[in-house]
Automatic annotation (TrEMBL):
This is Probable chemoreceptor glutamine deamidase CheD. The gene is cheD. Belongs to the CheD family. Pfam families: CheD. It is an enzyme of class 3 (hydrolase). It comes from Anaerosporobacter mobilis DSM 15930.
């Protein structure tokens, strides 16, 4: 197995097989894993907010679903990925507070998931695996050899999508 590359919050990175990618502690944030099965190039973004157009000074592209996905694809293509082969797996977007609310600020997890799916859909990238919502945090690991996304949550069995 290759090197395990850590992705921080509002961060992204891409690698080729045999590299792997991980991000810790996804709460309302969404972890997006993109993969080109033919070249075994993978990428991961840990996005915090749905939409960069709502924020004035946003130098950090990785923080937002829209700009983060664009930047991730750019990095993957530079490693040899073909945009037309990309598939996506997403995890996170939890509602970390125990009350239901229609207040949009509190629905950030849902909005992150919706924005991620909308952006991927607009680029013609299929979401082939998903573990989102509910009320617990997730740590994810993405393996370029297989395209497997492992999801670890406290007190729950490890899930592979």
């Amino acid at each position: 197995m290759g090197e395990m590359i850590k992705i921080g919050m509002a961060d992204l990175n891409a690698c080729k097989y045999p590299g792997a990618l991980t991000t810790l502690g996804l709460g309302s944030c969404v972890g997006i894993a993109l993969y080109d099965p033919s070249t075994k190039v993978g990428g991961m973004a840990h996005i915090m907010l749905p939409d960069s157009t709502k924020i004035r000074k946003n130098e950090n592209h990785a923080k937002f679903a829209d700009t983060g996905i664009d930047e991730l694809i750019k990095q993957m293509i530079s490693l040899g990925a073909n945009k037309h082969n990309l598939v996506a797996k997403i995890a996170g977007g939890a509602q970390m507070f125990a009350f239901t609310s229609n207040n949009d600020m509190l629905r950030i997890g849902d909005r992150n998931v919706e924005a991620t799916k909308a952006k991927l859909s607009s680029l013609g990238i299929r979401v082939i695996g998903e573990d989102t919502g509910l009320n617990y945090g997730r740590t994810i690991e993405f393996y370029t050899e297989t395209g497997d996304l492992l999801i670890k949550s406290v007190g729950k069995p490890i899930k592979t999508i």
